[in-house]
Amino acid sequence: MNLSWLMPESVSTFGPALDNLYYVILWITGIVFVVTEVVLVYFIIKYRHKEGRKATYIEGSSKAEWIWTSATAVIVMALAIYSKGIWDTIRHPDMFPENAYELNVTAKQYEWNAAYAGSDGQLGTSDDIVSRNQVHVPVDQPVIVNLQSEDVIHSFFLPQLRVKHDAVPGRVWPIWFEATQTGEFPLACAELCGLGHYRMGGTLIVHSKEDFDIWLSEMQIEAEDDE
Ligand SMILES: [Cu+2]
Description:
Elements: H1 15-46, H2 62-91, E1 101-108, E2 111-116, E3 129-132, E4 134-138, E5 142-149, E6 154-158, E7 163-167, E8 173-178, E9 183-189, E10 201-207, H3 209-226
Parallel strand pairs: 1-5, 4-10
Antiparallel strand pairs: 1-2, 2-3, 5-8, 6-7, 6-9, 9-10
The chain binds copper (II) ion.
């Protein structure tokens, strides 16, 4: 059964693997839930009160306990091993792609500020280019976002990219993703961060490589004109 309607379209390189893991867990827990409920209802009806029927004392069955304990352990271990590969790809610092484009994103009540290296090619210098509530990235290239927060805990959420990560004050947290499609996608804050949390939204703009370079140089010219 195709469950893809449950989620927004995926435009991320690691999206399909992550979605599959989600569907596998949903199937396993879904089947266990239905079977358990059916058995529960069956027993409620079968052993309902009847005049003259006396309850019997039972001590349980160690065979049944062995079966359900080991079956659960096997399923949980299998899921842990299956998900570890995906988790490592996405979050393990040693697995970060090397040819990534790097930018900074700083969250604050209630906006997202992105900073890109200016003409010196260095991030965190005075010629950085900034965009407010817009994160511009090139398509088909890994992007590293150094996430930080100026005030409280926010959460950088790109549903279509299958990215969600907390921005924690006092820490710089690198995350990465690679968009597979150009276009505009919503950026939301997924952590209740104050009264204006609901309007802490932005846009992820995925450009073709050429358009991204054009956008960057236009922003550089604009910044130089302002000086
Ligand atoms: Cu927020």
